[in-house]
Write a structure and sequence with these properties.
18 helices; 24 strands; 6-stranded mixed sheet; binds 1,4-dihydronicotinamide adenine dinucleotide; binds magnesium ion; 7-stranded mixed sheet
Length: about 500
């Protein structure tokens, strides 16, 4: 298929232009192959709505092929690799991602709409770090010796120990908001533990996962250990339901997370889920207001609000509510809207027309319900999927803008009274992914962190992640933890061996 070259490609690196020139295939068993049914789809640049390239669309037969090749590797060559060999491979991949960071960031910016500069400084650096962090873990996954006293054998002597073994063939199904980074939340931890991975990137953003497969193959990845199946929800569903997949790790909507749980029950595969959020940012009157205004604005505007941890509910102490929300609205109004390839842009396009309609639909519903937009409130321009950064006040807890994940540059702000406390409002959500607390009173900040039911609480910052810090949700924000040592638990199973001496 020949596509008209998108005019916005003029400023991109020659290596990116070269990558986009050819139609993209699936990566299965160390080979680039067409989908068995020959199907393809087109991926678009959301800054222009123009096509970027054509990509193979994996069906159930391709899922079977990738899973079978994964199983062969898992039972065969990969099982013979020592921890130090896995460590070296993952480290080499991390180094290669650093070397290709600019190219990967441009590809991400074109496919997703995000800022290329931010993608290079944040997404790619962190992706590389995750490969290197889990490279380190590969040689440090240890069992324990356990003193036992088996009751039916008084006087006997025992030697009992545990080992941590890989789970097996892992499916990874990821979203479009941080395409390569979400792959890196799963792939390096899984491989460090000795698993194999079948990765299904989101249909909106398939490109960096394919480039990652090239980088991994160049670094010495054995065939079958890592496959990339580009496709839609049906491809993900086939992975989640597959009887020879031992675990599925999913990041995406809570709605699809529940479908994954249903699909997984056939063979009771292990499931880990990172789902939606409606994260509160609690601002006390004693906060450093200047820092809190800038920090909370970025807390909901980062990645144009397309972040599962977006701080989309500002809960502000009533004494400072007007001053504070005016300050945040001003930051929002002063944000420059433009394409991700323009380094001066603050707010890029949403990933797709569907997402544009979803986000403007929420804003319109909020305004119809009686909310007031202190900033924004509309689509920006006619070309590309841009939405003005929007801060809504006069919002009731029953409004959909208050309750549901919007996934765009939109926050609601509501006041709270210090005597009534903020705990009930902060926890008035089915989600529990993240929260932030802004205060100079260290005890109050820690007490508030303790009271909030969320997997991550930041104090005087928002979206401050680290490879070593566990990440995941309370309530309907998910099952299990990624990152840190928690991911090692989720990609291994424990075997107990008890020896009668
Ligand atoms: P989604 O949850 O439908 O898509 C995420 C991934 O799941 C994609 O790779 C998709 O192809 C795959 N998928 C879709 N249906 C599937 C199925 N039945 N079985 C297995 N895999 C399936 O998210 P979507 O539709 O792109 O976005 C909808 C909303 O979801 C967003 O507006 C946002 O609120 C939320 N979302 C949350 C994310 C997060 O990081 N928590 C990421 C993406 C979306
Ligand atoms: Mg969907």
């Amino acid at each position: 298929m020949t596509l008209e070259i998108n005019s916005s490609l003029a400023n991109v690196l020659p290596s990116v232009q070269e990558f986009l020139r050819n139609d993209k295939q699936l990566f299965i068993d160390g080979q680039w192959v067409d989908a068995a049914a020959g199907e393809t789809f087109v991926t678009y640049d959301p800054a222009t709505g123009q096509p970027l390239t054509s990509v193979a669309r994996a069906g159930a037969e391709d899922v079977d092929r990738a899973v079978a090749s994964g199983r062969r590797a898992f039972d065969g060559e990969w099982s013979l690799w020592t921890p130090a060999m896995r460590q070296r491979l993952l480290f080499r991949i991390g180094e290669a991602i650093y070397e290709h960071a600019e190219e990967l960031a441009q590809l991400e910016a074109l496919d997703n709409g995000k800022s290329a500069g931010v993608a290079q400084a944040v997404d790619m650096v962190w992706t590389a770090e995750l490969f290197e962090y889990y490279a380190g873990w590969a040689t440090k996954i240890e069992g324990r010796t356990v003193p036992v006293s088996v009751p039916w054998a008084p006087g006997a002597s025992w030697h009992a120990y545990t080992t941590r073994e890989p789970v097996g063939v892992c499916g990874a199904i990821i979203p479009w908001n941080f395409p390569l980074l979400m792959a890196a939340f799963k792939v390096p931890a899984a491989l460090a533990c000795g698993n194999v991975v079948v990765l299904k990137p989101a249909e909106q953003t398939p490109l960096t996962a394919l480039r990652l497969a090239e980088i991994m193959a160049d670094a010495g990845l054995p065939a079958g250990v890592f496959s990339v199946l580009t496709g839609f929800g049906d491809t993900g569903a086939a992975i989640a339901a597959h009887d020879d997949v031992d675990k599925v790790a999913f990041t995406g909507s809570t709605e699809v997370g529940k479908l994954i749980v249903d699909a997984a029950k056939g063979n009771l595969k292990k499931v880990s889920l990172e789902l939606g959020g409606k994260s509160p940012q609690v601002v006390y009157a004693d906060a450093d207001l200047e820092a809190a205004i800038a920090g909370t604005a970025s807390g909901f505007l980062f990645n144009h609000g397309q972040a599962c941890t977006a701080g989309s509910r500002l809960l502000v102490e009533d004494r400072i509510f007007d001053e504070f929300t005016q300050g945040v609205a001003e930051v929002a109004r002063n944000s420059k809207i433009g394409p991700g390839m323009d380094p001066t842009s603050d707010i890029g396009p949403l990933v797709s027309e569907e997402q544009l309609n979803r986000v403007t639909g929420y804003i319109n519903q909020g305004l119809a319900d009686g909310a007031t937009a202190l900033s924004g409130g509309r689509r920006h321009g006619e070309v590309g999927y841009y939405v003005e950064p929007t801060l809504l006040v006069d919002v009731e807890a029953s409004f959909s803008v208050y309750r549901e994940e919007i996934f765009g540059p939109v926050a609601v702000a509501t006041p709270f009274n210090i005597d009534e406390g903020v705990q009930a409002a902060a926890n008035d959500t089915p989600f529990g992914l993240a929260a932030s607390v802004w205060s100079r009173d260290i005890s109050k900040a820690h007490r508030t962190a303790r009271a909030i039911k969320a997997g991550t609480v930041w104090i005087n910052c928002h979206n401050a992640f680290d490879a070593a810090l566990p990440f995941g949700g309370y309530k309907q924000s998910g099952w299990g933890r990624e990152l840190g040592e928690g991911a090692i638990d989720s990609y291994t199973q424990t075997k107990a061996v008890n020896v009668l001496l």
